[in-house]
Write a structure and sequence with these properties.
Aspartate Aminotransferase, domain 2; homodimer; four-stranded antiparallel beta sheet; four-stranded mixed beta sheet; 12 strands; 2 domains; 354 residues
């Protein structure tokens, strides 16, 4: 039996796995699991008709570029569309400041590779995106968590952390903050906006990473933007996600009541719930899995070792009856744990809980 | 003006650009350029009808997975199809030995990141793929070139290089060899086959790189394999590429004659030509660009600083009249250089030429 670990690079040895992706694997290999884990978009509103029409048109054979390799920088009309979308959000960008990426994850990864040397400090929010944690950890960054309050990152805490790391002689490289309420898609098309000298470096790094993002994907996304598919869909998506959120909140209130606390989210895909009973996120997940429910433990999003009193429940993808069924399973798991209050079942992994 | 270079990581500072990709940029920004540079597939035989039918079916709305995020490992039916394709080539693989990648480039990049530490020796062929050179250089590998003879890599030279590097106390990590006659596609779908412990590491690295390869692309490629589109296309592609090769060779013989030497390729997309006149690849490229022709300099493929007496001419993508026009431009550029034989125009960049 060959020991393959001895062939690994220093990066290969310390690769950090994404907690969310791991949960995805659980779902893929089990049956009848309700998943509140990944923030997947709602399949009910996938714009099938529009995408089918766009694809038929793109694959009519009139434009060979649709199936040909393209420039690393991205499909030129899509670059211009991105510039337009950015302008609507108050970000002025020119062609030499934009790069199309294979989803937002690749943008984060390119930033980590091109900007972060081992030992560099990267400030992140508490909590933050696990894909960001993994990418920065894989670049061997030192992650420092900054608390958030209701209006976002706590700037006084940020200032204090800055002073502390600077006094310790650390190289502080990045502050990674997440805008409100992202909208993921199954297409692997994202973009970066940055100053031209950095975009040029990101593009060079992308050359050796994947040459180019998917060409057909880029054409489809461009057409969807151009034809207003995305714009027309947005209000319908907001209404559906609001409805699903209300269903999850109603079920949580009815079936679980005082054991969980949460602020009603004004956007996005998730309810962040705090466990009042003093049990840990991981112990609860283990019980929930036994009943066919999966979610992501809060601690996966906190780089300072905290968050064990929190769980993240995604309501975006499951159909409404599945949301209700999932909350029922969560209630059973919580009840079982409460019945064992004080026993070894409740507290686990030695983490501090309030 | 901010100096952004001071924010770069050690990797970001020494990023290697792909010579082929750079040529792609030249083509994208110029007009009436004949490109013998990148090994793009022939657009004449893109299977538009089959892909349009496949897309229409995939986007009928019956399978939400087509537009949903999928597992990092890859779309399960495609994994099984890859196992079947591998078996036809004599490679036995099971599910835990396969990973779908965003093109072959991402496979090389994952290998570089997961296996290569700075200073590790990677053996490559002379010449080798520039995308491989870039990925290994970006992992800060020490690249050692091994000559090839008519039947592939020179195993005696490989053995001698191995002894030499080992005696010097170097860590020899990889031998990177290229199979005959690759078949690229515009879809960003490739795959890796490796022992399970390594596939698991590659998958973890891919999580933070791009989460997953394009989902629609994976479904389309799976369907194209399943329906036999790829198999039916192969003989037509071989015939077309043979015809284009013959056109290029005929034109080279008629218009350039004794100034170039080459072996007729039995597959693939390229004629590798040796410059007999003693002029350098880069000087010739500069002249050719002035006449609207682009190709890739031979030296870009040689990690030992040699190859300046070679040029790579791709015949796969241009239409047949464009191949003839490109050779006409090459003949003009070569004639101009010969007229200046002995002047500073012919030899450049200080490299050794025979």
């Amino acid at each position: 039996m060959i020991d393959y670990t001895r062939f690994l690079s220093s990066t290969g040895r310390q690769l950090a796995e994404s907690a969310i992706r791991r949960m995805g694997t659980v779902v893929a290999t089990a049956t009848d699991v309700v998943s509140f884990a990944p923030g997947y978009p709602a399949p009910e509103l996938f714009p099938w008709d529009e995408l089918r029409e766009i694809s038929a048109r793109l694959l009519s054979g009139t434009d060979a570029d649709t199936l040909q390799y393209g420039p690393t920088r991205g499909y030129a009309p899509l670059l211009d569309a991105v510039i337009g979308l950015s302008a609507e959000r108050g970000i002025t960008a020119s062609r030499d400041q934009v790069l199309i990426t294979s989803g937002s994850q690749q943008g984060i990864d390119l930033i980590a590779r091109v900007l972060v040397s081992p030992g560099d400090v990267v400030f992140v929010e508490l909590p933050t995106f696990t894909g960001g944690i993994a990418a920065f950890r894989n670049a061997q960054a030192q992650l420092v968590g900054i608390p958030q309050d209701d209006s976002g990152i706590d700037v006084d805490a940020l200032d204090a952390a800055w002073q502390l790391e600077r006094a310790a002689g650390k190289r502080i490289k990045l502050l990674y903050v997440i805008p409100n309420f992202q909208n993921p898609t199954g297409f692997r098309v994202g973009w970066m906006v940055a100053p031209p000298p950095l975009i040029e470096r990101f593009e060079t790094a992308k050359q050796s990473t994947d040459l180019t993002s998917g060409i057909l994907d880029q054409h489809v996304v461009y057409e969807a933007v151009r034809r207003g598919v995305v714009r027309a869909l947005a209000p319908k998506l907001r209404a559906l996600y609001a409805q699903k959120r209300d269903v999850m909140e109603g079920a949580l209130r009815a079936q679980i009541g005082s054991q969980l606390a949460w602020d009603s989210p004004k956007g996005g895909f998730f309810i962040w719930a705090t466990l009042r009973s003093g049990c840990s996120d991981q112990v609860l997940l283990d019980r929930a899995l036994a009943h066919g429910l999966v979610f992501v433990v809060g601690s996966a999003f906190f780089v300072d070792g905290s968050g064990h009193d929190k769980i993240r429940l995604s309501f975006s993808a499951p159909a409404i009856p599945r949301i209700e069924e999932g909350v029922r399973r969560l209630a059973i798991a919580l009840t079982e744990l409460l019945d064992h209050q004080g026993s070894s079942l409740v507290r686990g992994h030695g983490q501090a809980t309030p």
